[in-house]
Structures are given as C-alpha cells and as structure tokens.
Amino acid sequence: MTAETILFYVFAGLAVISALGMVLNTRNTVASALSLVVTMVSLGAIYLLLEAYLVAALQIMVYGGAIVVLFLFVVMLLNLSTDEFPPGRQRLIKSAFVIAGVAILIQILIAMGNDPLFATPPEAVPEGYGGYRQVGIQLYTDYVLLVEMASLLLLAAIVGALILAKRKID
Amino acid sequence: MPIEPIIKILFIFSVMVMGLAPIITWIERKQSAVMQDRIGANRADLNGITILGLLHPAADVIKLMMKEDMVPEGANRVMHMLSPLIAAVPAIMAFAVIPFGGVYVFGDTTLNLVGADIDWGLLYIFVLGSIAAYGNVVAGWSSNNNWSMLGGLRASAQMISYEVTMGLTIVGIFMVFQTLRLSDMALAQDTSFRVLGFLDVHFGLNWAWIDWIRLPAWGIIYQPLGFLMFLTAVMAENKRPPFDLPEGESEIIAGYHLEYSGMRFGLFFMSEFIEIILIAALTTTLFLGGWAVPWLSTETIINGISSVMGTGFATGLCILIHFVSFLLKVIFMIWVQMLIRWSLPRFRYDQVMSLCWKILLPLSIANIFVTGAVLLWVKG
Amino acid sequence: MLPMDHVIALSAILFTIGVLGVATRRNLIVILMSIELMLNAVNLAFVGFNRIWSQTDGVAAIDGQIFVLMVIAVAASEVAVGLGILLAMFRNRDSVNVEEVNLLKW
C-alpha cells in the first residue's frame, strides 16, 4: 500500500463518518453543518489525490468556504441550533426508504465489483491534467455556452434569493 | 529521509511565525504609543533591564500560560477547545507557498527557497483563508453566549463577503503575470522596464538616456488599484480595526473570543498577528517584487560579486541579500497595516458591507476589464 | 495509484447517505445539506471517472472536471434559493419543519 492509498482510505473514512454524523445528528443543526464541512474538506483532499487540483481548491473554497458558512449563518441568524421536532407520522414510509436505499447501494457495489473497468489501474495522467490552465482553456473554448448558461443561472438565483428573503417587496 | 524540506519548514516556522509574531505585538504597542504621544511598553524588566520593552511578549506568554483555561457552562466543550486551532493552523500553513528567495544554482545542486513550490499556490492560500473563517464562527457558536454568537454571525457574513472580493481584486495580477505559482510571480518581478521605452519602439528615437529611466517591474506598478483594493480586502478578512466588527468591544463586548481565556485566547490573538505577517508577505510577493532588489536583478548581483569573490560565495551572499530585501519589505507592509489600524476608527456594519459589495466588487470587475483590454492592446 | 473502484464506491455510499437524509429528516436545513452531499457524491464520481479516462491521444481530457465546476455553480444557486425559501418559511410558520408545509398537499 502506498502512502496515497492510505491517505485515501483515511479521508474516505472521515467523509463517510462525518456524512453519517450530519444525517443522524437530530439534536444540533450547527453540529450537522460542521460535520458537512469535514465531508467537504475530505472530499477536497481526495480530489487532490486524484490529481484534480483546481477542482480540489474550488471544492474547499466554494463548498467549505461559502456554501456551508451560508448555512451556518442562516442557522445562527434564525437561532435554530436546537432541532427537536415531535416524531413524525410517516415512520413506515421512511423505514422503507432506508431499506430500499441500502439495498440499491449494495447492488451497485456488487455490480461494480464485477466490472472489468476497474480491473486495471488507470494510466499516469498527461501533462497539464487538472491544472487551472487546461481547465480554463477548455472552459472558454469548447464549453463557453455552458459558462454563459451557468452565469444566467447564478443571476436568476441571486434575483430569486433576494425576492424570497426580502421582508417587504416594494 | 529528505532533509531539505524539514530545514525549510523549521526556518519558515522559526523566523516568520515564532520569530516575527511576538515582535509584532511589541511593534503594535510601540506604534500606538508613538501615535498617541505616549512612551509605550517599557515596564517588563529583568533586574531593571527592559530592552525598549522587548520583554513584554515573553511576559505576555507567561501570563497567558498561567491563566485558568475556562470553558463556560453549557458550551460545546470539543468545539470550544478546537476553534482557536482552526483559526491559527491555516494561517501558519499558508506560509508554505510563500517564496522567501529565488532559485539558486550551486554547481550541480539547485536550491529553491520556497516551502512547497506548487502550481496553484495562490489558490492554496485562498483555500486556507476560507477554512480559517470557521475558527471564528465556531468559537462564536460554541461559547453559548449571545454576544459571542453575534460576533460569530458578523464574522461569517464579513468573511464570505470579503473572500469573493479578495479573489476578484487579484485577478488582474494573474492576468499580468500569467501564472498562479507564487515563485514564478516573484521571479517575474525580478527585473525592471524602461518607462519611456515606447519612444524607442514606436517612434524610433533611440536616445541613450531612455535606457536609464527604469522602474522595477513590480505588481504595484502594473496594478496600483488592484494593490489598494487587495490590501483593503485582506485587512477586512483579518478582522482588525477598522474592520473589527466581529470583536467590536463597545458593541458586543469582545465578540467571538469573549468566552476565551488563557492560551486559547492567546491563540486567537496570535492567529491575528500571524495573519498580519501573512498579509504582508503575500502583498510583498504579489505587488512589491517579493525577494527582488529593485533595479538589481539576480544576475547583476551574482555577476557583480563573483567577479571579486567567486561564484559560490556570490550566490550565498545573493541569497542573504534577497532574504533581507524580502524581510524589509514584509516589515514595511506590517508597519503600513499598523498605521492604518491606529489611524482609522471602526466602520459601521452596513458601511463594511456596502464597501465590499458596492465599491470594491464593481471596481475590481472594472479593473479586470481594463487590465484585459490593455493586455490585449499591448500583447496583441 | 488509488483503487478507482473504491473511489466510485465511496461516491455511491455518500449519495445513499444523502438520499436517506432527504428521506428521513424533517429539518429543512438538514435536507438542503443532504442535497449538497448528494451533489458532492456526484462530483466525486465525475472526478473519479475523469481520472480513469484522463486522456485522448496523449492530450489531457478534463470534461469531467468541467462538469464538476458546473455542478458547483448549480449547487451555489440552489443553496441561495433554498435558504431564501427557508427564511420565508421561517417568517411565516416560525419553524423549519417540512411537515408543517402542507398547504399544497391536497
């Protein structure tokens, strides 16, 4: 086992444990959000191990630095840190969801174990793979329409969030 | 066992973090004293020897170590203990990519004076900056105190707002130097250009004195507006006056570190000072030529000395000159920050936000636009 | 070299955790966070598959990473609108329990 593989398993374990911590923690919303940060940062580390440097940096900057801070901001603003609702009614539907989800996951994992795609380790990456230069060139040549659409989407989101969050629309 | 990285890490840690940070607390006291017409820190003494008050940092550390480490009732113990570390560790880690010297050749070995010479060095610093925000937010939340909570709330809003602007103000510099690697940026500034060169190129006036009017090719010359905006944004990111709304002693007592005592408070305090050094080192590397000596490129220095002393000695001396040049610029930037900190009163919160979103953000986008247009015009 | 099947398996596991979070939790904030987790799991799958097919004829192929950037943009706008809805809901209902939002149910 190389150092990279060991690091991968460490971060993978961290990601799974903190993701479970986020979903299973029914007492404290802030702790859920902080668990989500740990997931995001460990995923960023895994992207580094997969040699996708720009994506790793953006993962931590955008998800860790902006999105989860926004969650924390809202939780603190509304003072929602305790989260104790009376038990819901749809117990049966929920447990069915859990069983079905886990069953599908197990099936996927079994199917993946037999896939020849994973039989050989991937070849070494070519020059410039995952760096900002290559991604930037591709983004503004082949995918420029996608960038324009993303910018329109973000603009729509800004306007929508503003209208939703405004107390009085005048 | 690779010995070279370990030496670099120890060097960076001992000089930049453990060496400069305590001295800065002294600089701050002395600076405020000078500006307020006082004498300043000079009371800590060993047998009457005060060394201009330089013993105060040591006295501070001893005092903070001796204090009781309080955890308030109803606080989240683990998070309360962890958050000073979340604030301090990223600030220290960021020094890994800051070049404190260039690349030097000794016979067949090359020496690159930067901890980790990674291709996306500047992004790495932004990543660490976005993680460091959690230190304050978590501290505010975990203390179980309304004032701390308000401080954490203010810190989170201020830090995400200014992170966006900080990224955009610096895009002009990326466009000028065409790289994100900090050592390449510093290397690109290790030269000078002819101010009146266009007379020669466009009008064919090859007068001899045109060669003599030169300016160092520093970022601040290419991006003066970018420099001012970046300095504003990083100082707001560091949450020191005039941007210290998350602390705001007169409004919310001490904000997010209200419930901290002893060395945990000391860590918050230290992380602020380490960030001052980081900001100084970063602005130096991006805008003030890094380790470069103005008007004297590395080649000129080495050739000039080696004609007298021999190449090996000349290279060694060049390393020393470059490091001293870097350190002087860093100390200058620290002094500039102290000057701003003791000159300006605290902003109102809405003023901080409108400065970020209504002034800095549009200006930085205009800066990117103008830089792009000029680059297109000059480089074709 | 990383075991690529384990990378994709990690992505599947995280996605399942996200689905279960959306299905079982009633706090709107945690539901939004679970959606983020699912988007992240998809990102991991994109990066992992991109690492497997990392080149076409010796040139770096990074289409997977570009999709990740697009997913990040979508996630950011989703969070902005989602938290806006959450604020509006908290103002009207004084709660973030999704089971109380049932006016359109019948």
How would you summarize this macromolecular structure in one to three sentences?
The complex is a heterotrimer of chains A (170), B (380) and C (106). Chain A has six helices and no strands.
Would you write up a description of this structure?
The complex is a heterotrimer of chains A (170), B (380) and C (106). Chain A is mostly helical. In chain A, 72% of the residues lie in helices and 0% in strands. Chain A has helices at 3-24, 29-49, 53-78, 91-113, 132-139, 144-165. By secondary structure, chain B is mainly alpha-helical. Chain B has a two-stranded antiparallel sheet with strand order 1-2. In chain B, strands 3-4 form a two-stranded antiparallel sheet. Chain B starts with a helix and ends with a helix. The model of chain B has no long low-confidence stretch (mean pLDDT 83). Chain C has a two-stranded antiparallel sheet with strand order 1-2. In chain C, strand 1 (55-56) and strand 2 (59-60) form a beta hairpin. In chain C, helix 1 packs antiparallel against helix 2 (28-52) and helix 2 packs antiparallel against helix 3 (63-93). The radius of gyration of chain C is 18 Å and the shape is elongated. The model of chain C has no long low-confidence stretch (mean pLDDT 84). The chains are: A mainly alpha (170), B mainly alpha (380), C mainly alpha (106). Chains in contact: A-B, A-C. Chains A and C meet through helix 1, helix 2, helix 3, helix 4 and helix 5 of A and helix 1, helix 2, strand 2 and helix 3 of C.
List keywords for this structure.
heterotrimer; A: 170 residues; mainly alpha; Four Helix Bundle (Hemerythrin (Met), subunit A); 6 helices; C: 106 residues; Helix Hairpins; two-stranded antiparallel ribbon; 2 strands; 73% helix
Number of domains of chain C: 1
Structural class of chain C: mainly alpha
Find the CATH superfamily of chain A. Answer: NADH-ubiquinone/plastoquinone oxidoreductase chain 6, subunit NuoJ
Calculate the mean pLDDT score of chain A and round it. Answer: 82
Strand content of chain A: under 5%
Helix and strand run of chain A:
HHHHHH
Topology:
The complex is a heterotrimer of chains A (170), B (380) and C (106).
Chain A: H1 3-24, H2 29-49, H3 53-78, H4 91-113, H5 132-139, H6 144-165
Chain B: H1 3-35, H2 56-66, H3 77-93, E1 103-106, E2 109-112, H4 121-142, H5 146-169, H6 171-177, H7 182-188, E3 192-194, H8 197-203, E4 214-216, H9 219-222, H10 224-237, H11 249-252, H12 262-287, H13 298-309, H14 311-343, H15 349-379
Antiparallel strand pairs in B: 1-2, 3-4
Helix pairs in contact in B: 1-12, 1-14, 2-12, 3-4, 3-12, 4-5, 5-10, 5-15, 6-15, 10-12, 10-15, 12-14, 13-14
Chain C: H1 4-24, H2 28-52, E1 55-56, E2 59-60, H3 63-93
Antiparallel strand pairs in C: 1-2
